[in-house]
Amino acid sequence: MGECTKEVFEERIFENYSTMLSDRSVVELKKGGSKVRVNFEDRFDYIQKILEVRINEAKLQIDAIRRGLNKLVPQSYLNTLSGKDIEIQVSGKSKVNVDLLKRHTRYSGNLNEESNRIKYLWEVLRELSDTEKLRFVKFCWGQERLPANDEEFERTAQEC
Hints:
By secondary structure, the chain is mainly alpha-helical. Helices cover about 55% and strands about 5% of the residues.
């Protein structure tokens, strides 16, 4: 809408100052907006108003999540993390660290790290694709991701 000519805009764009939200409700972007056609000169104002409404659409829910998260994790700590860092802390790494898994694997019966079967297991596991490794972990662990590091592995093991 921003790059087209006035003629193309007026020929092809038939918007008014309202927009549909995620819940399918319609909100007016200005008073009486459902009856006000967007003209070429006001197109950037229209775009800005839609962005503001859509960005703030989930503000109540996001604020509630933030308050709950801050009860568990101090805001000052969260401010030092990127979104990716938080994802790793909460969900673990999206790639399976075979060495981490191997360090925390416990064997039973007459199996140990020197058993041929176990050596073959680690050899094959290293050769699997990332997707196959995630499937293996889900089969064995009941979830697709391992804890992020040794500390989280130990903490998780203590909770089980």
